[in-house]
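Archive maintenance. Older records in this collection stored only the sequence; we are now back-filling the structure field for every entry so that each record is complete. The fields below show one back-filled record exactly as it appears after the update. Entries are processed alphabetically, and Acetyltransferase is next in the queue.

ARCHIVE ENTRY
Title: Acetyltransferase
Organism field: Actinomadura montaniterrae
Length field: 133
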Amino acid sequence: MRKAALALITSAAAAGAAGVALAAPASAATSPSAVCGSGYSVIDHKALTGSTVYLLWNGSSGRNCVVTVKTTSVGTKTRTGAYLYVQGSNPIEDTDSYAYYAGPVSAPAVGKCVQWGGGTNNQWWYSGWTHCS
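Back-filled structure field:
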């Protein structure tokens, strides 16, 4: 076990020295803004049993983003999903067994309404057409 830990530390140091970005652990990125990326702000959310679904907006890019962050069974993989449907486009969904969150799912939405939602094994929710920009 010590050898494996030393190999992991050595690999991480080598990657850092080579200028390769190392991904943060999934548990560190459970802020919806961190998951969607730079420039996104939460504009709506829906608290559910087992998770919270967030709708975010990036005014610079004109994109919406949806992330479902687990609030129970965190760290344990359970069915978790995030859903975004922009008027006039095909719905986008990310549903699988996740330990921390589902998504991000994002799409351009300037001048269009969106339906958004998601959840976990415990409860799912989907909005009607809303947030028309």
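Update note: The radius of gyration is 17 Å. The beta strands are 41-48, 51-58, 63-70, 78-86, 92-98, 101-108, 114-120, 124-126.
Entry marked complete.
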